[in-house]
Design brief:
This protein has 36 helices and 25 strands. It is α+β, with helices and mostly antiparallel strands. A hairpin with a 4-residue loop joins strand 17 and strand 18. The chain is about 45% helix and about 15% strand. Helix 3 runs parallel beside helix 5 and helix 31 runs antiparallel to helix 36. The two termini are about 55 Å apart. The N terminus is likely disordered. The chain has 6 domains: about 180 residues, Ankyrin repeat-containing domain (Serine Threonine Protein Phosphatase 5, Tetratricopeptide repeat), CATH 1.25.40.20; about 220 residues, Rossmann fold, CATH 3.40.50.300; about 70 residues; about 50 residues, Arc Repressor Mutant, subunit A, CATH 1.10.10; about 140 residues, TATA-Binding Protein; about 90 residues, Death Domain, Fas (Orthogonal Bundle). The chain has a 7-stranded antiparallel beta sheet with strand order 16-17-18-19-15-20-21. A 6-stranded mixed beta sheet has the order 2-3-1-4-5-8, with helices on both faces. It binds guanosine-5'-triphosphate. The site of guanosine-5'-triphosphate has 23 residues, from helix 13 and helix 14.
Length: about 850
C-alpha cells in the first residue's frame, strides 16, 4: 500500500485530516483518483463518514455508483446517523437511489430525526425518487416519529403532485401491479417490419393487398387479377418508359400512370399475415414528391425486410436503373453506427408482372424467368457492396395471393422472425402490453390531431397506464413503440397514429395536387397555412412539419412566417449572376466554384436533399451568417439559392450535366482583395450544405469537383469542372502541392491549384493542410463505410482489410485484435492506422484494389482548415 500513501501525501495536511485518500478523492469528486484507488484495493468503508457518504453529500453520483459497484457497504450510518439512501433521497440522486434499491438496500430505515427515505424524498420534492422507492416496495403507510405519513409531508412542503401520487397508490392498492409491469418478461418482443420500395405502378399496393389477403379475399383478388390483365393489352407504363430510354438514356421517371390509384405518401399498416403473425408494412409511394421525408422512416433495423419491386414489363435497362436507384437511396440513408450487415435487415428484389410475360410455371407454381436473376446479377456488378442483398429474386404476379412466390415471401418472414426472437428476449414488459391497449383509446381521443408533446405523453401514460413509470421507463417504451411502428417520435413530439402521419399529413401535403395549388414563393403565415390545410390546427401542424424538416420558421418584419423550400416554384430570375456587375469585373476580382457530385452511376439522389439544403441555408442565415454580417441576404427559388453579404455573392443550385448526373453547384465571387473572405465564406457554405446532406443521407459519399476560376471570371457558359479524382491524383503526383496545376480541357490551359482553390492567394496555404497529407481518420464517414463494405468481406486472393493492415505496417497482434463479427474491421483499421490518405491510396493500388483506391481518390478531402476563421 505504499503507492496510495505516497499519493495521499500530495494532499494538504488540513484536507487530509483523518480522511483516507479514497475518502478525500470521493469528497472532491475526483473520479479518476477514486477508480485508481479502488483498483489498488483501498478500504472502501473507512468511516465513520465513508467515501460513499462523502461523495453523496457533495452530490457526486457517478463516484457513488462506482463505489457501490466496487462493493462499498451501503447500510452504514455516518456521523449524522444517515445511511447512503437517506442522503441520496434528500438530494434527489435518482441514479444512486435506483442502484441502491437494485442492490437490495433497506428502504425502511429511519434517520436520526425518525424520517424515512420516502419522507426525505417527499419533503424535498423529488417525485422520481419517490416513484423509485415505491417500485422498490417501500411501505406507503410508514409514519415518522411525529406520526406523519409521507403524503402528508409532501403536502406540508407544497409538493401536491407527490401527495397525489402516494394517495392514489394507497387508495387503489395497485402499487405492486404497477411495479411488476416494469419488470421485463421472458416474452420476445418481435414485431417485423416490411418496407416496400419501387417506382410507380410496379405493384407495391397490389403485393400488400395479396400479402394480407385471407382465404376468401384471395379468391376475390385472383379473379380481379384476371380482369386487370385482360384490360391491359398494351401497357401504358411500358410504352412511357421505352420512350424515355430512347429520348434520355439515363433518365428515371417517377411519374405514375393514370389508370390506377397511386399511393400518396407512406402507407403504414399493421397486417395480420397468415402463418407469420402481425407485421407492420410500410409502403413508400414511388412519386418523387415524397422522397424528401423518407429518411425519417428508413433507418436500418434488424427486424426489417426491405422489398424493392420492379416490373418485368419494363425493359431490362430500366429495371436495373430503378433497382440501383433504390439500393443507392437506401445505402445513402445508412448511418455510421449501422452495425454489422446482420443488423441491417435484408433487401429482397421482387420482380412483378410476370404474368404479362411469356414465362411459364413449374409444377409447384414457381415462375421460370431467368432474366430476373440476370437483372440481379447486373445490379450486383454495378453495386458490388450492397449489404444483405438476398441472392435470389422472387418473381410474382402481385395479384395472386397464396401463390408460390407469396409462400416464399412468407417463409422468409418466418425465418426472419425466428432470427429475431433471441435478440429481443427480455425486452417485453407488462408496461408495453398495457400501453399497446391504451394507445387504442388515446388515438380516439386525439383523432383530429394525433400529436403530443413527449411531456404530455409521459403525464398521460402515468395517469392511464402506470403511475410508477420513470422517465427512463417511458423513454425506453417510446423507443420500442417507435421501432415497432406503433408511434413515431421526432424531436419533442410523439405522433400516435402512423397512418395519419404517412397518408393524411405527408400524403396530402406533398401530393402533386397540393403542390399544384401552393403559393409559388413557398412562404406561409400560420393563417395562410390554415386556410389551405384546414384539417387540423395550423400551429401544431407547422411545428410537426418543422420537426420533419419540411419547413422552417422565420421572422419577416416582426411577423412569423414559414418557408417551405419544397413548395417553392419561383423560377430562376435573370440577372442573378450578372456578368456586368462592376464590383466583380475589376482585375483581381475573386471567383471560385465547386460542384458536389454523388459517386458515378448513383443517379438522382440530390432531388430529395436539395430542399433540406435550402432549409439549412435559411437556418444558417438566421443563426450564423448574421452573427458576423447583419446584411446576409438569402433569396431562394426552385432548386436554387443566392446568399449575399455586402460584398460577396454565392449561388447554390441543383443541376444536371450532359450525362444526366445531378450536382449541387456552389459559385462564389467577391471584389478585389477579398480572397480570404471568399475562401472562408465558401467553406462555411460548404459546411452548411454538408450538414444538410449528412442529416438526410448520412451514408452518402460526396465528391467535390472544382470549377475553373478562370472561366467563372469570364462568365463562360460551361466552365470546365475538374473531377475530384483528377485533382487528388495530381496532388499525389506533385512534388509540392502549391506547384500543382490542372489541365482545363475546355480552354486547353493550365490552372494552378492556388487559383482554383485559394482564390489565387498563396498566403491562404498557411491556414490549411492539404488532403493527401492528412491522416486517414479525416476521410468522411460514408467513405469509411464504403471502404468497409468493399474490404471487409474475405477476398479470394486475400486482398482484403487484413492484407491492407499488413501493408500499413500493423503487427499481427494488432491485426488479430481488429477482427470482429460485430463491426467493420476496415473501419476499425482506419481508426487505428496512423497513415496518410496518400499512403492509403498507394497501398490500395499496390494491393490491386483499385476499386477501393478510386473511392478514396474521388472522395478524399481536398484540404482541411487549420484554424477555422468565422467570417
Ligand atoms: N398483371 C399484373 N398487374 C399488376 C401486377 N402488380 C400490379 N399490377 C397492376 O398494376 C397497377 C399498379 O399497381 P399498384 O400495386 O397500385 O402499383 P404501386 O407500385 O403501388 O404504385 P404507386 O402507388 O403509384 O407507387 C394496378 O392496376 C395493378 O393491378 C402484377 O404482378 N401483374
Amino acid at each position: 500500500m505504499s503507492e496510495p500513501l505516497s499519493r495521499a501525501s500530495s494532499y494538504s495536511p488540513a484536507e487530509s485530516f483523518e480522511l483516507t485518500p479514497l475518502q478525500l478523492a470521493a469528497q472532491q469528486g475526483n473520479i479518476e483518483e477514486v477508480r485508481y484507488l479502488i483498483n489498488l484495493g483501498a478500504d472502501l468503508d473507512s468511516g465513520p463518514d465513508t467515501a460513499l457518504h462523502l461523495a453523496l453529500r457533495k452530490r457526486h453520483s457517478a463516484i457513488a455508483i462506482l463505489l457501490l459497484d466496487a462493493g462499498a457497504n451501503f447500510e452504514l450510518k455516518d456521523c449524522h446517523e444517515d445511511c447512503p439512501i437517506h442522503i441520496a433521497c434528500i438530494y434527489g440522486l435518482l441514479n444512486v437511489v435506483h442502484t441502491l434499491c437494485a442492490l437490495g438496500c433497506r428502504v425502511e430505515v429511519p434517520n436520526a430525526k425518525g424520517l424515512y427515505p420516502l419522507h426525505l424524498a417527499a419533503r424535498n420534492g423529488h417525485i422520481s425518487v419517490v416513484r423509485c422507492l415505491c417500485v422498490a416496495g417501500c411501505n406507503l403507510d410508514v409514519r415518522y416519529s411525529d406520526n406523519i405519513r409521507a403524503d402528508i409531508t409532501a403536502l406540508k412542503y407544497g409538493y401536491n403532485d407527490i401527495a397525489e401520487l402516494l394517495d392514489k397508490l394507497r387508495s387503489t392498492g395497485q402499487r405492486d401491479a404497477f411495479a411488476r409491469q416494469l419488470v421485463p418478461t421472458s416474452k420476445p418482443a418481435v414485431k417485423l417490419s416490411v418496407r416496400i420500395l419501387g417506382h410507380c405502378g410496379v405493384g407495391k399496393t397490389s403485393l400488400i393487398k395479396s400479402l394480407g389477403a385471407g382465404l376468401f379475399s384471395s379468391l376475390f383478388r385472383r379473379s380481379s387479377s384476371l380482369q386487370s390483365n385482360k384490360s391491359r393489352p398494351s401497357s401504358p407504363i411500358n410504352s412511357q418508359i421505352e420512350m424515355d430510354i430512347t429520348s434520355r438514356q439515363n433518365s428515371l421517371t417517377f411519374e405514375s400512370s393514370a389508370n390506377y390509384e397511386s399511393t400518396k405518401g407512406i402507407n403504414i399498416q399493421n397486417l395480420e399475415i397468415s402463418n407469420v403473425g402481425e407485421v407492420t408494412v410500410w409502403e413508400f409511394s414511388g412519386q418523387e414528391n415524397y422522397f424528401p421525408v423518407y429518411h425519417h422512416f428508413l433507418r436500418p433495423s434488424s427486424q426489417t425486410l426491405t422489398l424493392i419491386l420492379f416490373s418485368l414489363e419494363d425493359s431490362p435497362v430500366i429495371q436495373v436503373k430503378q433497382i440501383c436507384f433504390w439500393i443507392n437511396f437506401l445505402m445513402a440513408r445508412e448511418t455510421s453506427d449501422t452495425p454489422s450487415s446482420r443488423e441491417c435487415g435484408q433487401i429482397l428484389l421482387v420482380a412483378t408482372h410476370v404474368d404479362t410475360t411469356r414465362a411459364i410455371k413449374t409444377q409447384h407454381g414457381e415462375w421460370i424467368y431467368p432474366d430476373a436473376q440476370k437483372t440481379l446479377e447486373t445490379v450486383e456488378k454495378l453495386i458490388p457492396d450492397v449489404l444483405n442483398l438476398y441472392p435470389n429474386v422472387i418473381v410474382m404476379d402481385c395479384n395472386v395471393p397464396a401463390s408460390y412466390p407469396f409462400k416464399q415471401l412468407k417463409s422468409m418472414l418466418v425465418s426472419l422472425k425466428q432470427d429475431c426472437v433471441e435478440k429481443t428476449l427480455g425486452t417485453w414488459t407488462g408496461l408495453l402490453d398495457s400501453t399497446l391497449s391504451w394507445l387504442i383509446t388515446l388515438r380516439k381521443d386525439y383523432e383530429q390531431f394525433p400529436v403530443l408533446y413527449r411531456n404530455t405523453f409521459h403525464n398521460l401514460l402515468r395517469i392511464h397506464v402506470n403511475l410508477l413509470a420513470s422517465d427512463d421507463n417511458i423513454q425506453e417504451l417510446l423507443q420500442q413503440l417507435h421501432n415497432m411502428g406503433e408511434l413515431f417520435c421526432i424531436c419533442d413530439l410523439v405522433i400516435i397514429s402512423l397512418p395519419w402521419l404517412g397518408l393524411q399529413l405527408i400524403g396530402e401535403l406533398l401530393s402533386t395536387e397540393f403542390l399544384s395549388n401552393v403559393r409559388a414563393t413557398g412562404v406561409y403565415t400560420p393563417d395562410d397555412f390554415q386556410a389551405c390545410f384546414n384539417h387540423c390546427d395550423a400551429l401544431g401542424t407547422l411545428e410537426l412539419l418543422e420537426a420533419l424538416d419540411i419547413c422552417i420558421q422565420c421572422e419577416v418584419d416582426g411577423e412569423i412566417e414559414y418557408e417551405f423550400p419544397i413548395y417553392n416554384q419561383t423560377e430562376t430570375l435573370p440577372g442573378l449572376w450578372d456578368s456586368g456587375d462592376p464590383r466583380y469585373r475589376t482585375t483581381g476580382a475573386c471567383y471560385g466554384g465547386i460542384r458536389l457530385y454523388t459517386p458515378p452511376k448513383s443517379y438522382h439522389l440530390f432531388t430529395a436533399i436539395f430542399p433540406h439544403v435550402q432549409i439549412e441555408l435559411r437556418k444558417a442565415t438566421i443563426e450564423n451568417f448574421s452573427n458576423n454580417d447583419n446584411d446576409t441576404d438569402l433569396y431562394q427559388w426552385f432548386q436554387g439559392s443566392k446568399l449575399c453579404t455586402i460584398t460577396l455573392e454565392t449561388l447554390i443550385t441543383l443541376d444536371e450535366d450532359e450525362n444526366s448526373s445531378q450536382y449541387i453547384e456552389v459559385k462564389i465571387r467577391g471584389p478585389r482583395q477579398s480572397s480570404q473572405y471568399c475562401f472562408y465564406f465558401l467553406e462555411n457554405v460548404m459546411e452548411t450544405i454538408n450538414m444538410a446532406i449528412a442529416r438526410v443521407c448520412p451514408g452518402l459519399i460526396i465528391e467535390r469537383h472544382i470549377l475553373s476560376a478562370q472561366q467563372l471570371r469570364i462568365h463562360s457558359e460551361e466552365p470546365y469542372c475538374c473531377p475530384s479524382d483528377v485533382v487528388c491524383a495530381a496532388m499525389l503526383e506533385g512534388e509540392s502541392t502549391l506547384d500543382v496545376s490542372l489541365h482545363n480541357l475546355e480552354t486547353d490551359k493550365l490552372e494552378s491549384i492556388v487559383q482554383l482553390v485559394l482564390f489565387d492567394d498563396v498566403e491562404l496555404a498557411r491556414n490549411i493542410h492539404w488532403g493527401c497529407a492528412l491522416k486517414v481518420n479525416n476521410l468522411s464517414v460514408p467513405t469509411k463505410l464504403k471502404l468497409g463494405r468493399l474490404l471487409d468481406p474475405p477476398e479470394p486472393h486475400g486482398r482484403d482489410w487484413c492484407l491492407l493492415a499488413l501493408r500499413l505496417g500493423l503487427g499481427p497482434e494488432t491485426i488479430a485484435s481488429l477482427d470482429s463479427h460485430h463491426s467493420s474491421c476496415t473501419m476499425r483499421l482506419l481508426a487505428m492506422a496512423d497513415c496518410t490518405i496518400g499512403a492509403l491510396i498507394s497501398s490500395l493500388h499496390e494491393l490491386g484494389r483499385s476499386d477501393a483506391a478510386e473511392v478514396v481518390l474521388r472522395s478524399a478531402p481536398l484540404f482541411k482548415i487549420i484554424e477555422h476563421v468565422n467570417v
